């Protein structure tokens, strides 16, 4: 635990964060993460954050050293897609029982589990995750992993991020530290070029990075490592030979980008693949960093040609949606990079942003939002479900874009909703992804179901007529016009005919 505390202190003292640099030394060591609310930490602990960052490494076996309940449904907890092995979707756990804990059998059971995985699946590496229970009873997973690695001849990586140490965001950063300490730089590539790039904080949700990768390949760039989306262990181990890094989600992995620049001299920038303009700017910045690192100067000119070609195609496809969506109001309840990148993307086609959440956004994200939105009060730190519901019921927005947790607020308000978080089933990155996002918004807003569900129910209409003194005759008329009464008349007529036969 002393080593873990030192690692947490180091992560909190992050010089790459502008907000952290502005604090005095004492305040900086306290970190930026808010304490967890008791009873509200499910799905948001440090262990969960570490698993989110590392589980999409597809050819690695992920072993959870914990009681069974700490492992979730590994087939359904994230929408990250893989083009290769599905080993990462297989759940491995030591399944500690009360007897194992009381008798101190945790470390032995962990070693046996590593041996079974190594002999049965022969993965290139095994990631071992500590949890609240195993950290509290004092199991030394780092020593066990070191001994297992020597015994079985493969990397066994300890991920020391038990849930009780902090928030999900802290777990993201501790996962990045595990990669720095045990993976990155442990192998040397035999094919390194001056066109290799790293992409950090891209999770390939619904396979959306596959919409961007062909653009980079057309420019001659090669993805040395995409961490963690559709990654392989060997890719991450050789990531130190890339010439430039794009950081998609600084909230999660800014420590990884900064330390790779310090240790290996790889320059980085923060960008986004959401929206036409942001995708173009990301391509330009990658090309600029590579040229500065020694790549062919003609890369910049090739990038401009590609950007012009792809933008023309995308805008031509989007024109069909502009008359249907211009002026439509969007309520955005998300965080991180999407809090500003999606704002810019929707404004490009004439939609109005009436509110966006900045709960999980960095100070840099918030500054971008201020520049994009006309009114600062459109950016809210946290909005209660009741307030979101009221805003939708008062028709201050035409659609809400959020994660699955808040979809029922929109549905209860009988308003369109679209999932843009990790559970989504559509890819929204790159030029094609922007067109798909707009298409899905158009489908959601103009779905005829909303006109139907907003109509008064037949029984409500009858009830209103009954309450009226002069509603007797109208009540019978309304009853005869209801779908139920019409169906009953149809059934009776069929029954009478059958009786006559």
Automatic annotation (TrEMBL):
SUPFAM superfamilies: Helical backbone' metal receptor. Pathway: Cofactor biosynthesis; Fe-Mo cofactor biosynthesis. The keyword Transcription does not apply. It comes from the Bacteria. GO terms for molecular function: nitrogenase activity. Residues 45-444 form the Nitrogenase/oxidoreductase component domain. InterPro entries: Nase/OxRdtase_comp1, Nase_comp1_CS, NifE, NifE-like. One of its GO terms (biological process) is protein-containing complex assembly. Pfam families: Oxidored_nitro. Keywords: Nitrogen fixation. This protein may play a role in the biosynthesis of the prosthetic group of nitrogenase (FeMo cofactor). Belongs to the NifD/NifK/NifE/NifN family. This is Nitrogenase iron-molybdenum cofactor biosynthesis protein NifE. The gene is nifE.
């Amino acid at each position: 635990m002393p080593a873990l505390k030192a690692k947490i202190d180091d992560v909190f003292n992050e010089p790459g964060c502008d907000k952290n640099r502005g604090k005095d030394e004492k305040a900086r060591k306290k970190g930026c993460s808010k304490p967890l609310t008791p009873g509200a930490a499910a799905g948001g602990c440090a262990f969960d954050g570490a698993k989110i960052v590392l589980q999409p490494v597809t050819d690695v076996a992920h072993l959870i050293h914990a009681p069974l309940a700490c492992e979730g449904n590994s087939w359904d907890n994230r929408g990250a897609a893989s083009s290769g092995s599905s080993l990462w979707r297989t759940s491995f756990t030591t399944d500690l029982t009360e007897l194992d804990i009381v008798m101190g059998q945790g470390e032995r059971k962990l070693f046996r589990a590593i041996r079974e995985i190594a002999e049965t699946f022969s993965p290139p590496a095994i990631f071992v995750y500590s949890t609240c229970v195993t950290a509290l009873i004092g199991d030394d997973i780092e020593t066990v992993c070191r001994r297992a690695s020597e015994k079985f001849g493969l990397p066994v990586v300890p991920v020391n991020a038990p849930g009780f140490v902090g928030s999900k965001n802290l777990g993201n950063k501790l996962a990045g530290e595990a990669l720095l300490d045990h993976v990155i730089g442990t192998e040397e590539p035999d094919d390194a070029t001056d066109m290799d790039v790293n992409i950090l904080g891209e999770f390939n949700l619904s396979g959306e990075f596959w919409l961007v990768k062909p653009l980079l390949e057309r420019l001659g760039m090669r993805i040395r490592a995409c961490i963690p989306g559709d990654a392989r262990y060997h890719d991450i181990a050789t990531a130190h030979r890339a010439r430039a890094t794009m950081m998609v989600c600084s909230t999660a992995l800014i420590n990884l980008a900064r330390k790779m620049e310090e240790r290996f001299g790889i320059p980085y920038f923060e960008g986004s693949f959401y929206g036409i303009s942001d995708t173009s700017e990301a391509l330009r910045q990658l090309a600029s960093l590579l040229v500065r690192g020694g790549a062919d100067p003609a890369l910049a000119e090739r990038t401009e040609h590609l950007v012009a070609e792809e933008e023309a195609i995308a805008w031509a496809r989007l024109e069909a949606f502009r008359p249907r969506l211009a002026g439509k109001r969007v309520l955005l309840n998300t965080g991180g990079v999407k809090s500003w990148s999606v704002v810019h993307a929707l404004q490009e086609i004439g939609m109005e942003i009436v509110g966006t959440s900045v709960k999980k956004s960095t100070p840099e994200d918030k500054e971008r939002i201020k520049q994009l939105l006309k009114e600062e009060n459109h950016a809210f730190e946290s909005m209660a479900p009741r307030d979101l519901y009221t805003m939708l019921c008062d028709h201050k927005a035409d659609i809400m874009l959020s994660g699955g947790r808040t979809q029922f607020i929109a549905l209860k308000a009988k308003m369109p909703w679209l999932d843009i978080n990790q559970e989504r089933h559509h890819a929204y990155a790159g030029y094609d992804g922007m067109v798909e996002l707009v298409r899905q918004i158009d489908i959601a807003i103009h779905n005829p179901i909303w006109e139907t569900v907003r109509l008064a129910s037949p029984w409500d209409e009858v009830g209103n007529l009954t309450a009226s003194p002069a509603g007797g005759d109208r009540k019978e008329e309304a009853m005869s016009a209801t779908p139920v009464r019409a169906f009953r008349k149809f059934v009776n007529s069929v029954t009478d005919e059958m009786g006559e036969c």
